[in-house]
Amino acid sequence: MDELLVARVRMLDQQGRPVKAIAKAVGMSAKDVAGVLNGGTAAAGPGPGEPRCWVNAGWSRSVDLESAPQWTGLDPGAPGAEKVRGLVAVLVAADSTRSTKAQVAGFLLDVWCLGVKNALAPEPMSESRLAAHRGLYFSAFEGHVQVPAALARALVFGAAAYASSLGFEPGREIAGDFREAAALLGQPAGPSPVGFGRDGKPFFANGPYDDPETVLRTLRRSVGDGGFHFEVAFPEQPSVRRRLPRR
């Protein structure tokens, strides 16, 4: 298949277009489009028995890849195109020889501080539903890119381990979903080579469901007052308290 046509299919997929729309746009059958998307690339596609994995475009701007240079070329996000928030989304699809549907799970990571913010337990999906789900899943980001399962594991388990070292574990309401989703992803071969935190320190920016006072107390216990940075907006206090890293 022509390389330019393959590149166009993948570009439309990263824009969140469904398989049928991509097929119509490029003049291919939906089956052939699904085959291109499932095949990935030599660098990013799944190995034998490995799940297919995707992360949001721009993910590399939130982590340190100095010790993992093999993954520096797997991010199509343009530097500065989006405010770096320290959030990374990971989607996982494990195929089965006994079913035409893949088991699909997902993770939302705070790679600067809290680790696993949310997890979606595995759910069976057809290829067409997976394609639509993938577009919606990454709709809050610049797009998405297929990556090796080893990178997805390094991000998910590395972020969880980093947060645990600071005193944070997945919340009780998502702990079960995280265990099931993690089992689908598989276990890493060793410690993550990816660096977490911002500028070498934890950085906490609260979301709508976080308890800022509890998080800040935990950080003070684990790394001390000078060991972290934060940007917190308290609901009862509209002003933003900041301790930003020096550039």
Structure report:
The protein has 247 residues and is of the alpha+beta class. The protein has one domain. The chain has seven helices and eight strands, in the order H-H-H-E-E-E-E-H-E-H-H-E-H-E-E. The protein has a five-stranded antiparallel β-sheet with strand order 4-3-2-1-5. Helix 1 packs antiparallel against helix 2 and helix 2 packs across helix 3. The protein starts with a helix and ends with a strand. The C terminus is likely disordered.
Number of H/I helices: 7
Q: List unreliable stretches of 5+ residues.
A: 40-44, 238-247
- Order of strands, main sheet, comes to 4-3-2-1-5
Q: What is the rounded Rg?
A: 19 Å
Distance between the ends: 47 Å
How many domains make up the coordinates?
Answer: 1
Helix-and-strand structural type: alpha+beta
Let me know the largest β-sheet: 5 strands, antiparallel
Helices and strands, in order, run as HHHEEEEHEHHEHEE
The number of E-state strands comes to 8
Q: What fraction of the residues are assigned to beta strands by DSSP?
A: 15-25%
Shape: elongated
Mean pLDDT: 84
Q: What is the share of helical residues?
A: 25-40%
Concise account of the structure shown:
This protein is of the alpha+beta class.
Topology record:
Blueprint: H1 3-14, H2 19-26, H3 30-39, E1 52-56, E2 87-96, E3 99-110, E4 115-125, H4 127-137, E5 144-147, H5 149-166, H6 172-185, E6 203-205, H7 212-223, E7 229-234, E8 237-243
Parallel strand pairs: 6-7
Antiparallel strand pairs: 1-2, 1-5, 2-3, 3-4, 7-8
Helix pairs in contact: 1-2, 2-3
